[in-house]
Amino acid sequence: MSGDRIRGAFLGLAVGDAAGWPAARHRAALHAPWSRRLHRELDAFAEEHRVTTLPVPFALNQPVAPLAVGPSDDAEWLAWTLLTVDEPRAAAFRALGPDIRARISVATAIGNLARGVEPPASGHDNPHHFDDAAAVRAVAFGALGRDPAEDAQVTNAGDGLLGARAMALAVAEAVASGSAAEAVRAALTVLPGDTAIGHNARLALEVARAAGDPFAAVPALDAALLDHVYSYGVGAAQTVPVALALAEVSGGALDRAVPAAACLAALADSAPALTGALAGACGGLAAIPEGWIASARTLAGCCVPALAGKDLMELTEEFA
Amino acid sequence: MTFRDRARGCLLGLAAGDALGAPAENLSPAEIRRRWGRLTEIEGGGTDDTEYAVFAASLLVRHGHALTSADVAAAYRAEIVPLVTGPMRGAGFSELGTVEALRRGLEPPLTGRAHLHGWSDGLAMRAAPYGVFCPGDPAEAARLVEQDGLVSQSGEGVLGGRAVAGAVAAAMSGASPRETVRAALSVLPADSWTARNITRVCEVLDRPPTAGSGDAPARAPGAQDALVEALHAAVVVRHYPWTDLAPEAVALALAAYLVGEGDVEASVTFGVGLGRDADTIGAIAGAVAGAGQGERGVPERWARRIGPATGKCLPVVAGRHVLDVADELAAHLPTDPVDPVDPVDPVDLGGLGAWADGTADGPGGGR
């Protein structure tokens, strides 16, 4: 059963990743630069002409496959983590080629490593030390029962590091027991109340419990966690608490938790993925809708080009 | 030189650097050179740096050394939050994030942690009055500015404020530029982004002259472009679209102050030429240099351009002139300089251990 839950965590993350609207934007990176420029120009056109027909990612003289529902950045970084999990972490990041796309924390950390700034400073001297790049990778470490800290501190610090530890513990607990409530309890043990992530996690749980249902909790989570001041919705202090709260209030049901996470537009890049990982670990692979697995299992290579075409189902077999 | 003179020089230098740097904010050094050559003439008014510094000074005048973060949060709630009814003009992310956190009922230090801009230079830009208030005592200046910082910043954003307040406190007692920068380092943990960045810019400045130049790199005409590039390479974060990072702005400002050898005009004009958060870099460099040189150190043509704050960023400070604010701060200081700074050790130009030593006492020691 725990093998099914380990694979549930990995495929659940990919399904959540695919469900959020930013996935199509990330996957459009596979298209020619002029095609994406056209998208930006259409956005400007809509602004200038006051038309509300907003451009969506589209293909002109380009293959259309990347724009179908499918996994993007988070699923690829999870797969990369699994493939390199036995390597020293800073060395694994150093070995990444120049063609990757990643969060600001990772891009800055790789620049730091190249300048001789080693962990933990590589993750600390970093404007996005707080983001959830390490929390996404921590799903791999947690499912395998390993400590995510060495990996996390390459790219993150502060709430970013706490988010990784909380996700790893929650996923490990969900894999072991299948209980979302126990997973949340485990995560809270490493989230001090005087940090933003610890404060927000407790607040998110409170408002989600009051709402009583994942979808019902969406406006309350938006009001409680988001100040809408900053432009990048990948802060671990927001996305990890949303994942914990929705996993718990859904009782670990992925098909209820992930759609709610995807409704939080500002957090839709990664909160659905983290939510999917937690709920997927609770319910196991068997609880994930077949159609979603079919759409989410094949990686696009939009962030780690070497992973284009890689089957996440196959990859996870050796870990389950 | 009296403390009053230094206080006036400090806040005038801050306002002048802010106003001079404003049009260069977020421009590349190459674009700044293309537009102005060297940017030396103030075109318009100051920005949030000046207005928030005036607000910070008012906190010190009211609460003195007893100032707590609860006092600061109360002042935000009474004097800033109610006036933000529409757009919060001239505010950075950290200020608006703080206002949102206060509106949610959070208290410091969570108000500074709940938003994602804890590291912004929003405290560093307004830290100078704390240094003015504690001449010769960088540690106390750093302790006081942290009370303000806990409301709006966290981590490196607090440290950036500590560094600037510590530097101004040292400069207020006549410390040399090198001693002043060492005082900034003395109030930072050595294991911090800000301390590492200050050390990095010092290493750049201490590099031997490049081949073909018989002069020190900082002084040779034409070599300044290469120096600007080297400073950017040392501390500028490349993969990030915003420039208000305290560890970056503070290190660049102190580098400018060292390049200008403490002269207000030389420090500020070099600083704003670095681009990035040019108004804040100019404000910090101007404040530290102005504290060292006093009011007469600020070019007369700049001083003439500094009028009362308009309140365009913080309505509560409208009409306040930085020189009046400086006089109010100085009224709380002894009329004659107290003990002169400890004799300044000759600074070993290659002695990076001394720069990096975060445990050393700043000039003047404890209160």
Automatic annotation (TrEMBL), chain A:
InterPro entries: Ribosyl_crysJ1 (IPR005502), Ribosyl_crysJ1_sf (IPR036705). It holds the Pfam family ADP_ribosyl_GH. The keyword Metal-binding applies. The lineage of its organism: Bacteria, Bacillati, Actinomycetota, Actinomycetes, Streptosporangiales. Binds 2 magnesium ions per subunit. Its cofactor is Mg(2+). Mg(2+) binds at residues 269-270. The keyword Metal-binding applies. This is ADP-ribosylglycohydrolase. Keywords: Magnesium, Metal-binding. It comes from Nonomuraea cavernae. GO terms for molecular function: metal ion binding.
TrEMBL record, chain B:
Pfam families: ADP_ribosyl_GH. SUPFAM superfamilies: ADP-ribosylglycohydrolase. Mg(2+) binds at residues 47-49, 277, 279-280. Transmembrane segments: none annotated. Binds 2 magnesium ions per subunit. GO terms for molecular function: metal ion binding. Its cofactor is Mg(2+). Keywords: Magnesium, Metal-binding. PANTHER family: ADP-RIBOSYLGLYCOHYDROLASE (PTHR16222), ADP-RIBOSYLGLYCOHYDROLASE-RELATED (PTHR16222:SF12). This is ADP-ribosylglycohydrolase. It comes from Nonomuraea cavernae.
